[in-house]
Structures are given as C-alpha cells and as structure tokens.
Amino acid sequence: MVAIDVGGNSVDLAIMRHGKAEQIRTNWLIGCDGAHSVVRAAAGVAFDGGAYEESFVLADVQMEWPLSREEVSLFFSPAGLVVVAPLPDERYRIVATIDTAPEHPDIVFLQRILDSRGPQSAGSTIQEIAWSSRFHLQHRVTATPRVGQVLLCGDAAHVHSPAGGQGMSLASRMLYHSFHLCSKLSGAAPPRRWMHGRPAAMRSR
C-alpha cells in the first residue's frame, strides 16, 4: 500500500502489486498491520506514547523448579520483576526486567536473576537454555481508532507491556465491537462508534 484517500463512505487505496500500481476502492479499510502500521501512517493518525526505560530478558530453559508446573509464577522483588511460566517438554519461560540486558543472556546471567528474585525457600537450577534474547517495550495509543471508514486494530492501535493483561482486555473489547462491523457489512446495523472511549480508558490506566 502506497497511499489512501478517505472519502465520505469509502476508501481509495493506491497499492503496488508485482511492481505495478493499482487503485482499489473499498467501503472499509481495517488496519491490523502491527506497531509500525502503514495504514495508520497513511491515515495520518498520531501514535502517542514512548518507550519503557528498562529492557527485558526472555529465555526458554530447562531447569529444576521447586514450584507447581500448573501455574505461572510472578515475583516482585526489590531487585526487579521476574516471571516464570511452564512450557511443554519440561521447559520454562523466564521473563525479567533489567536496566541493561545482554543481547543473549547466558545461564550465569539468568541463574543470578532467579537466585535474587525467585523463590527463596527452595532453589532453582537452570540446566540448559533453548534460546534467549532481550527486547524493549513501548506504550503507545492512537489519537483516534477511526478515521472515516478506516479502522485501526490490535498493535496498530495500541501497544504496551504484557504485564496486567491490558492488551488482552483491549483485544476482547475490539472483538466485541467487530461484531458491530460485521453487522454493518451484512446490512443489519451500523457500527456507530468504533471503540468509543478506548483512548481515554487507555490513558487513565
């Protein structure tokens, strides 16, 4: 997609397909194309917010873990946050906040995190790393989720930390409102307000 022109009841798209320019007119355009949304940018919608200062480490490991494999364990310690989630094949996923994380955390680094932040009554021992990485998170939300017949969904509309299930909560609301759009397309009823109040609700959290 190269450009869009939002009309009263339609959207005109300029796209490149196999090196050739094409024009498409559609009643609705839904941008579900992620945090770097081309649809959002073409519609001229601001994506306000910023990045969290901390970095995160993420690793799938095999280890001896003293707690239940039937639930996710989350620890808030003075040293920082760490989450341990059971995976199939006797593996665990470790997620932790770190001021400055190495590109590929090794066993020594990850073990130090568990020793300082994990369960103190019984120890854990990492035996093998399947893979590890670091990443950064942003918290952003669109100025509006709708411009005319253009709708923005998912990461194209909002990004944030997975902690607290905020993204899942908003996704559930979007799923609910998507039924209104389906009703509109089938001629049953119009989606009068797409995610009305969502940006304000996002900023209040």
Rg estimate, integer Å: 22 Å
The major pleated sheet works out as: 5 strands, antiparallel
Helix content: 10-25%
Low-confidence stretches: 200-205
Strand content: 35-45%
Mean pLDDT equals: 85
Order of helices and strands: EEEEHEEEEEHEEEEEHH
Structural class: alpha+beta
Strand order of the largest sheet: 7-8-9-6-10
Count of DSSP H/I helices: 4
List keywords for this structure.
205 residues, alpha+beta, 3-stranded antiparallel β-sheet, 14 strands, 21% helix, elongated, disordered C terminus
Can you walk me through this structure?
Mean pLDDT is 85; it is low at 200-205. Strand 1 (3-6) and strand 2 form a beta hairpin. The protein is elongated, with a radius of gyration of 22 Å. The protein has helices at residues 38-43, 107-117, 166-185, 198-203, and strands at residues 3-6, 11-17, 20-26, 29-31, 47-51, 55-64, 73-77, 80-87, 91-98, 125-135, 138-142, 146-147, 150-152, 158-159. The chain has 205 residues and is α+β, with helices and mostly antiparallel strands. The strands form four sheets. A five-stranded antiparallel sheet has the order 7-8-9-6-10, covered by helices on one side. Strands 1-2-3 form a three-stranded antiparallel sheet. It has a three-stranded mixed sheet with strand order 4-13-12.
